[in-house]
Structure formats: C-alpha cells, structure tokens
Amino acid sequence: MDPVGEKQLRASFVNCSKGEASRLHLPVGLAELPWSDLDFLGWRDPGALDRCYLVAPRGDGLMGVTLRVPQGVRRSFAKTTVCSICLTGHPGSGVSLLAARRAGPAGRQGNTVGTYLCADLACSLYVRGRKKSQLAGRHEETLPLPDRIARTVRNLDAFLDKVLDGAAA
Question: For residue 107, what is the DSSP state?
C-alpha cells in the first residue's frame, strides 16, 4: 500500500457521514507505518475500543469503512479462532467479529455485514511473518508468500464488496 495522508484517509470512508469521518481518530504515527508491508490499513479507535477502521486500495482510489465490535459477543479464551481475511489462527480473543454498516441506503436503514478479523487488524503483517500469532503449535503454510498475499486481498475485497452491495440503490 502506498503511504496515505490524513485528508485521503478521511475522504475514503463509504459507510459514514463526512462529519463522522472528520471526527474519527487516526492511527498514531501514520507517517512511520510499514506501508510497503500493508495490503490495507486497519486500526482500533483509542477513544472507543468497540470501533475500528479499515482503509484499502480499491481500483484507482481508496475505500474506508468503519467497523464495530457487536455488543454481547463473548469469545472463549480457551478456543482457537481464525481470521476470515488472512486465515491466521489466534488463541482466545485474537480474532474479533467486526460489523460494518453497509454503504448507501441499506446502511442508513441499519443493515450491516460482518466478518471475523484479526483483533489488531494486522493481517498484512501476519501474512508476511512480520508479526506472529501467539498460538502455540501454529501451522505453517506451504503456499508461497505472493499467493498468500493475493488470497488476503481477495478475501478483503469480497468483504468490501458486501459493504458496497446495494449502495447505488
């Protein structure tokens, strides 16, 4: 992913108002992020731990979505969970169910779509081995790195397509 500035980030959000986008907390140290290792930028809101944000390159621009951790969802600390985007296994609460309001009229009516994501939204770093899951006895994939990256991007694109589904209606 190419480095992105504050203005570009805020303008990319498709499932919130411009006012909401102007007030969201951006990641700390934006300029120092490992951009060349990122397929998308994801971060948790330090002021509201039930909120997350994700911005990904799409076509010739960026697409940003706001995400929430649904209330009442309890994760077992004894079970292993797998991220739907990068397929990294994590112990306990290392994966979160995150819900995104759909873009357009569907989202204004309260429709959402969800997926299980690495709780720290660092999928790109897990895929590249820059960050390790705390899962004991982690299974090592034999799929070459470029193919794992392409699979992660495809999985993310499928989720983002669901966020956009019906936006033009």
Answer: H
Q: Which residues, in sequence order, are bridge partners of residue 80? A: 91
CA pseudo-torsion sign 13, 17, 22, 26:
negative
Average pLDDT (81-93) is: 90
C-beta atoms surrounding 68 within 10 Å: 17
Return the closest-CA partner of residue 37 out of 162, 163, 148, 164: 148
| Bridge partners, residue 99, by sequence | 68, 114
Global pTM reads: 0.90
- Tens-place pLDDT, residues 8-27: 999 999 999 999 999 999 99
Tally of CA atoms within 13 A in the half-sphere of 88 that contains its CB: 31
Banded model confidence at residue 166, pLDDT cuts 50, 70, 90: low
Q: How far is CA 52 from CA 15, 64, 99, in A?
A: 13, 11, 9
Confirm if 97 and 104 have CB atoms less than 8 A apart: no
pLDDT of residue 48: 86
Residues 99-115 have pLDDT tens digits of 999 999 888 898 999 99
Other CB atoms within 10 A of residue 121 CB: 22
Cα separation of 42 and 149, whole Å?
16
